[in-house]
Specification:
Oligomer: single chain
Strand content: under 5%
Order of helices and strands: HHHHHHHHHH
Shape: elongated
Number of domains: 2
Structural class: mainly alpha
Distance between the termini: 19 Å
Length: 168
């Protein structure tokens, strides 16, 4: 599943949280995202900036559902998890035994395979501690970090009901 497909299928409140975090904590990124998406749609950024915050977020979410927005959408997910959801990243890396810098940034290369038992235990722990939709989102974004994802993670995302994307 590509980033634009995740935007099509994720619960809108998760995306609203992402953009609200970005607006509060990474204001320049928020403005740059509006400008980039507006330019890609052949609009002037001011057209979007004049909207209410709720309408700006809804417009960005709608635009990120387009295949042409895939790259920026994936980048936004990465920034959100690396800076706005470090606790989740650290918990996953620790549970999987993946070396990291203490903030969730992986030291060295990602593993070629994921141990199935560790993966199941990691998911169980994450789902208990965090919103399952956020966990699902993170695991899907993590799975994008290799060309074809990890087979056992892909299968787990497809089969574990707790990790289903539930667009409202």
């Amino acid at each position: 599943m590509q980033a634009y497909e995740i935007y099509q299928n994720i619960k809108p409140s998760i995306i609203s949280d992402l953009f609200q975090w970005m607006r509060d904590e990474e204001r320049d990124l928020y403005k740059h995202t509006i400008a980039t998406l507006a330019n890609d749609r052949k609009l002037r950024p001011v057209f979007v900036q004049k909207k209410s915050v709720a309408d700006q977020i809804a417009w960005m979410h709608k635009t990120l559902k387009l295949k042409s927005s895939n790259m920026i959408g994936e980048h936004l997910f990465q920034v959100y998890f690396m800076q706005g959801q470090q606790e989740l990243l650290v918990a996953f890396c620790d549970a999987m035994g993946i070396e990291h810098d203490g903030k969730g940034s992986v030291d060295g290369d990602l593993p070629e395979t994921l141990d199935a038992d560790k993966l199941k235990a990691a998911v169980d722990t994450l789902v208990e501690k965090f919103d399952p939709q956020l966990v699902s989102l993170y695991l899907r974004v993590f799975n994008l970090q290799t060309d074809n994802g990890w087979d056992n993670l892909t299968k787990l995302l497809a089969s574990d009901e707790r990790l289903a994307l539930n667009a409202e």
